[in-house]
Amino acid sequence: MYDAMKTPMTTQDGRMKNRGASAGPGRDRPQDAGQPLAGDTIGIIAGWGRYPVAVAEAIRRRGGRTAILSIRDHADAALEPLADVYGEVGVAQLGGAIDFFRRHGVARATMAGKIHKTKLFGKRAWLRHLPDLVGLFTFWPHFVSRRRDNRDDSLLAAIAAAFDGRGVRICPATDFAPELLADGGVLVGRPLSAAEEADVAFGWRLAKELGRLDIGQTVVVKNRAPLALEAIEGTDECIRRAGRLCGSGGMIVVKVAKPRQDLRFDMPTIGIGTLQSLRAAGASVLAVEAGRTILVDPPELADFARRSGITIVSLFDDEGLTVTDPRADAA
């Protein structure tokens, strides 16, 4: 099954394969990405999902040690056995997180996993995530003085700056697990029909604009009509909402990186939960961006998609257009 997720995708004129080769998934990786870690201790700020587990496993495979800080109410129980040192922290307790990493010799750390903003907006949620002094200083312009907005990129960049300024450099998780990035191709299933290619191209442009505004990454379309756009509810609920709106199924789900994606955080991520949402909604195709999408547990993804009749395609982006769009050649 894993081999199926490495198969190059081509059209009759070979356009997709040739254009993808010039913009492959390694184009933004540092030269040392995926190299042995020689006992280095790498910090992981772990949110929800299997992604932090996959990153921790990759670090250990490369000879590194892991200092894992789980975000309270979010992280997978499977993380603790993978940690050389382990702790838990509230999402706004930045000073405590930085002290934890520095105490254990961490110079590089990464963020992996989702933070459920809907949980943070719940009643009394902040009582479990009260900021310490560093967190208060970092978030004051966003939540108190309101001089800055609360979009994901704004908040995550502020967090990264707080860590970087105190001696812990935030790095892309793919520096330590580059094998999780999606290659270009039909990863599972059959080639797309002409109508499906048109839907993917249509959804791709919408999703890129959604990302440019830092609202979401996912769009669900059918017959070149938008059914659902992702916002604070997240990818899974966006897909399931489309299923409730379109009982006949057969939708196309497009999930892409933002046009100016910061590779250190909030990379598009596909796991089994994503595919479960597609199956529940009756969606038939998932299109993702090659070199900018994390695939968690690829063999399991391939097996689940095949059994569910879901086609997964991974395409390279050309200035906001998927290579299935004829306008990409005319640009």
Walk me through the structure.
The protein is α/β, with parallel strands linked by helices and 331 residues long. The protein folds into 2 domains: 2-25 and 181-330, 3-Layer(aba) Sandwich (Cytidine Deaminase, domain 2); 41-175, Rossmann fold (3-Layer(aba) Sandwich), CATH 3.40.50. Helix content is 34%, strand content 19%. α5 (133-143) packs antiparallel against α6 and α8 runs parallel beside α9 (272-281). Residues 1-28 and 325-331 have low confidence and may be disordered.
List the helices and strands and how they pair.
Blueprint: H1 15-21, E1 41-46, H2 51-61, E2 65-71, E3 85-89, H3 94-103, E4 108-112, H4 117-120, H5 133-143, H6 152-164, E5 169-171, E6 185-188, H7 194-212, E7 218-222, E8 225-229, H8 235-245, E9 252-255, E10 269-270, H9 272-281, E11 285-289, E12 294-295, H10 298-308, E13 311-315, E14 317-318, E15 321-322, H11 327-330
Parallel strand pairs: 1-2, 1-4, 2-3, 4-5, 9-11, 10-12, 11-13
Antiparallel strand pairs: 6-13, 7-8, 7-9, 14-15
The total of beta strands comes to 15
The biggest sheet amounts to: 6 strands, mixed
User: Can you count the helices?
Assistant: 11
CATH class of the largest domain: Alpha Beta
Strand order of the largest sheet: 6-13-11-9-7-8
Q: Assign the structural class, choosing from mainly alpha, mainly beta, alpha/beta, alpha+beta, or little secondary structure.
A: alpha/beta
Q: Oligomer, anyone?
A: single chain
The gyration radius over C-alpha positions equals: 20 Å
Q: CATH superfamily assignment of the largest domain? A: LpxI C-terminal catalytic domain
Distance between the termini: 36 Å
Helix content: 25-40%
- Domain count: 2
Apparent shape = globular
CATH structural architecture of the largest domain: 3-Layer(aba) Sandwich
Low-confidence stretches: 1-28, 325-331
Rounded mean pLDDT score: 85
Content of β-strand:
15-25%
CATH domain topology of the largest domain: Cytidine Deaminase, domain 2
> Helix-strand pattern, N to C?
HEHEEHEHHHEEHEEHEEHEEHEEEH
